[in-house]
Amino acid sequence: MQYTVAPASGIAVDLGSSGGRIYVGRLHGDVLAVEEVHRFANSPVHVHDRWYWDLLRIWTEVQEGLARAGAGLAGSVTIGIDSFGVDYGLIDRSGALLAPVRCMRDTRTAGLHAAVYRAIPANDLYRRTGAMEISINTLVQVLADDREQPWLLEAAETLLFVPDLIAWFLTARRGSEATIASTSQFFDPTRRAWAPDVLQALGLPDRLLPPIVEPGTPVGPVLPALARRLGLPVDSVVVATASHDTAAAFAAAPLGAVRPAAIVSLGTWALLGLERPSPNLSDASRAANFSNEAGVGGGIAYHKILMGLWLLQECQRRWQADRPELDAAALHGLAAQAAPREFLFDPDDPAFVAPHDMVETIGAWFAARGRPAPDGAGKIVRAIYDSLALSYRRAIDALERLEGARFAALHVVGGGARAPVLCQAIADAIGRPVIAGPVEAAALGNLIGQFVAIGAVADFAQGRALVGRSFPPTEYVPLRSSRATED
Length: 487
Description:
Strand order of the largest sheet: 18-19-17-16-20-21-22
Helix content: 25-40%
Number of helices: 18
Strand content: 15-25%
Number of strands: 22
Radius of gyration: 22 Å
Shape: globular
């Protein structure tokens, strides 16, 4: 079906764990054109066994990107921000950021879910929030703050997630968009509202929680002085789009006629699942550790968090110190020359979450089990790809049991969609087609949220059709046996 849409321009600020990107999206007729205007590296900063995000440098880079975007725009423009979930900053009553933003990979949360469950039984917490148990959850991060630095919570007035912080920098307005708020483990996915009783049960302050808005809601105008300095149109408006990059990426997956289909947003992390009209708060869902997070259009982005390209990114960082020519394309090429399924390991082992040297850690995993380890970049990258593929097959098997349906295909969106060897390995592992693309799914979902907010696109369903037409995906069919030897 073709749609007629109003012309519009938007700026998408897409913040990932390994880098940030700023895009300009131009909507005209039934086509969406996207131009990348700025890109920068991002990584956590390690200081005395603590991990932080350099948020002020990120903000500096965002301003640079907005200035570059503004130079080519005239008339009304919207700005949307999406990012990784769970991490937050604390704002005091004077309007100051109280402390550096801690990174989800910080180990201060280790074992804290046991303390949570003493106050709220695990089954009750899942039925209340639908959130999977993982050490990065905001709930245990806030609990860690309360134990290590209680004066921060005492002085804080508002808790803002990363995209909400950037929106606040731009507009001076405080609020939280539903999809990013739902990563917290103190959000009610049925009511799409905070679950303050969860914080109260742990003696944590619920006064920090700002108002929640749905994706596709205008936040407010960019501060006039800031707009002038950055060269943005004077009527630029910030929109609370699908602010969690998973919800944004899911919203851009070109599902089309292939149903039922699962989705994996494959970047630094892999978030594998599907869109549901309502949450699954069953004991079986909790046992499988799936999360119910707010999606677009009132739905649920139901998924499991798995290891993603973090393994490759960290290996690449180590290798490029000596061999800068080993970019992503070169590593994909080396992996294509290596034998498939020769080296398999568990990519979701906690040892890989925050190692100081990923290459050595992968080797140590094999050595600890008395098995030969892959040597050389090509074999290591191929081992990563094959091991990730088998991890995703296990997750799809679990998802099919929970849904009582077999998926006809898996949509791979995000950075992993540009890795042919990985996409083919996934297709072989699951024994079903992989539909790869769009690569910049989170930015596209971000833009769709902006266009919905201003009425240029009727709804997110129309936006998904627009993405499918504008960015046709690539299909990979299984070539090898779908049932491989696993560890």
